[in-house]
Amino acid sequence: MKKAIVLGATGGTGQVIVTELLARGIEVTAFGRSETKLNHLVIDNHHHPLLTYKLGDIFAYETIVEAANDADVIFQCANVPYHEMEQHLLPLGERVMKAADALGKKIVIVDGIYVYGHQVAKGDENHPKQPHTKKGKLRVQFENLIFDKKWSNAKPLIVRLPDYYGVTSQNSYLQPTLTGLASGKLSIFIGSLHTPREYIYLPDAAKMIVEVASRDDAYGENWNIPGSGLITGKELLAIAREITGNNKPVIPLNRAAVRLSGLFDPVLKEVVEIMYITEDGFTLSGEKYEKRIGEIVATPYEIGLKTTLEQLMKNLT
Asked: What is the DSSP code (8-state) at residue 274?
């Protein structure tokens, strides 16, 4: 891989993938619709000589075709808000795959774990895809679209991440918790403080995603990317309080509280049906990655949270 394009480059995963590609000496085109955000991305990467950007609409496949014409790999990191998923997710998949197919390109789709529903076995790539939520069922349709045989020229793969955190994170479950702690204010925690869950540090995710993307034999498959081990919300808060010095209350939001908040917030309204993940947890297996790619990159929570919170505190001053 000598050149790549990152769709949704200014999002949480898009930003870290851009940075990781540049660190490997790969020429990168950052694709998005906000010139202001793309300019900030260039500044954040110190005007790296291998980084350029192109404005475009993810739902207009012609603009993707034009921007991705000379790329070796397309990284699809753009997403849609929860409350717009039913309307926009499948059209997004159709457009990016149509562009990849027209160009005969490799394309890496970054997705989550809703396709699995409740955990019934080890969370490897063969875990049953029997989701009980509308979002999970929609994500299964999305996967089927990505791997549809009508795309005779495109070479797709899907990487699946658990919930994540990091400096660039924007819409994760942990984001309001960490932002509140960094700002010295009261904050919230979505879900149970006692359920052991895994989170992935976004720079770790980027390293492993790019490793998968660099292997020709990885395409046509699903890849699960695990986090840094299990941790409860209570344990996570103890680490974060030590870093920030913020001992103000953190209010856990259970299903009932999120449902009530959803009366006033369209995004939280859509979170209710997937609260099972925050209540039961779901652990991804990295066995396939370890066997075929290499060692799992897993920054300890103490280090990842320290980097994230210190940067958030700096940004807020």
From this structure: G
